[in-house]
Amino acid sequence: MTRQRIAILTCLxxxxxxxxxxxxxxxxxxxYPALSRATVYNTLPILVEEGKxxxxxxxDATAVYDTTVITHAxxxxxxxxxxxxxxxxxxxxxxxxxxxxxxxxxxxxQRICKKCKK
Amino acid sequence: MTRQRIAILTCLxxxxxxxxxxxxxxxxxxxYPALSRATVYNTLPILVEEGKxxxxxxxDATAVYDTTVITHAxxxxxxxxxxxxxxxxxxxxxxxxxxxxxxxxxxxxQRICKKCKK
DNA sequence: CAAAGTTTTAGAATTATTCTAAAAACAGAT
DNA sequence: ATCTGTTTTTAGAATAATTCTAAAACTTTG
Lengths: 118, 118
Known about the structure:
CATH topology of the largest domain in chain A: Arc Repressor Mutant, subunit A
Mean pLDDT of chain A: 93
Oligomer: homodimer
CATH superfamily of the largest domain in chain A: Winged helix-like DNA-binding domain superfamily/Winged helix DNA-binding domain
CATH class of the largest domain in chain A: Mainly Alpha
CATH architecture of the largest domain in chain A: Orthogonal Bundle
Strand order of the largest sheet of chain A: 1-3-2
Low-confidence stretches of chain A: none
Number of domains of chain A: 2
Largest interface: A-B, 26 and 26 residues
Number of strands of chain A: 6
C-alpha cells in the first residue's frame, strides 16, 4: 500500500459515485498533489481486480468507475450523461435463472434524470 | 445515397455480425477501394440514426456496430472478445415492466464462448 | 541498513476518433 | 444534359484517452 493508492481510495470513500479516470485523477490530486496521471491509470484496474471498485462503460465508450461494487444496474441520462445506481432484484433473478447465478453482466437503461426532465 | 454508403451497407449485408469502425473500414474498402476512414466515421452514426445498424460498447470501451437492430442482449467472451446475439424474451419483459416499455437498454453478459471453452 | 522487488513518474508513443477546409458528387429545376 | 445550391467525401491535421518506457523513488525483507 503506497501513499498514492491510499489517496485514491480515500477520495473515493469521501465522495462515492461514478467517475472517469480523469475525474479520479483530479479528486485524488487534492489528497496527494504530486500524483501522476499514469499512477491513476495503473491503479484503477488493480482496485477493480481487488473488488474495491467496479468498471462500467458508457454508451459513448468512456470508462467510468463506480464505488458501488455489488452487481447492479445503471440508469444513464441521455441528456447530461449522469449515472445512477439502480437495484432491481427481479432483473437479477431472471438473468441468474437464464444464464446461471454469478454470471457477470452489465445492464444500463437510458432514462432522462430528474434535473433534465424539468 | 452515395457509392460509399452503398459500399458500407453492402459489405455489412454480405457479412452480418459485430464490427468495430476499423473492421468496417477494412470490409468496405473491398467494395470501394478509394473509401476514406473519415467517411466510415461520418456514416456509421447516420446508419445508426436511420435504424440500419445498432451501436454497442464493449467492456474495454471500444464501439462495436451490430447488424441486428432489434433490441436484444449480448454474450461477450472474456477470452477472445467475440460477441454473440442473445434473445431472452423473459429479460425484455422484466425490463419493460420495471422501467416502462420501449425504454432503451443495453445488457451484456460475460460468458466464455464455445471455441475458448475447449 | 542493504538488497531485491515493486511502484511511481514525466513524457513520449499509440490508438481511436473528430475536425477542417477544399474538392467532388449529388439532386432538383431548367 | 446543364446549371446551381447543398451535401458528402477526402486527406491529413488535431485531439483525447490511454498505454508504454526506462529511470528514480519507494517498500519490504532478511
